[in-house]
Amino acid sequence: ILMYHYISVPPEDADNYRIDLSVTPDNFHAQMQYLAENGYTPIDFYDLSNAIADKIDLPDKPVILTFDDGYLDNYENAFPILQEFGFTATFFIVTEFVDFNYANYMNWGMIEEMAAAGMRMEPHSRTHIDLRERERGVLIWEMLGPMETLEAHIGYRPRYFSYPSGRYDEATLQMAYELGYWGAVTTRGGKWHGFTDRYEWTRLRVRNDTPLPEFVDLVDPGDTLGGKFTD
Fold this sequence. Notes:
single chain, alpha/beta, five-stranded parallel sheet, two-stranded parallel sheet, 9 helices, 39% helix
């Protein structure tokens, strides 16, 4: 599972955080071209869950492309490149940022267009707050609210959650289960994903300074085949 944020050239006054989270469109295109030319198949979390439940087999080199926060450049830059290669991806949306038309974030028309084109839209909370040590009502507001809001716009109930800034605790995990989420992703690194860790799935961060050779190493399936460990 790969983790992206911005797909754009950082502005000249960008801080280190913004720079680190930004992959240029040229680099992103090169990364997608590498995946396309080397037998990788983008899947989504629904495919992953079905594979874990032994309902389907995954392709030999499955990869899930994820984008956190719902930035405008995901629509302007990432979406056309994904379509060029016939790839699907998952976008984790902070729904209040869309409701309030925050600058530099996608609007509902863009999100609906991308969903109709096969992109998955999943919740990244309502307001992107730290979910640790929160009262039950706050967790419901931040985790159920965006699920219902997205459902109203994309026509199906989203089932996967991305913890804001990767922060969560046991109460957050319990709430994800109670609300009917089928899985959730963190910001921790790792390649293997199963049923028991489905609310703490790891991802591989793609950074601004990730050169193509490093990207190649990052996505190498290693000792897995078709999503399953080999002997």
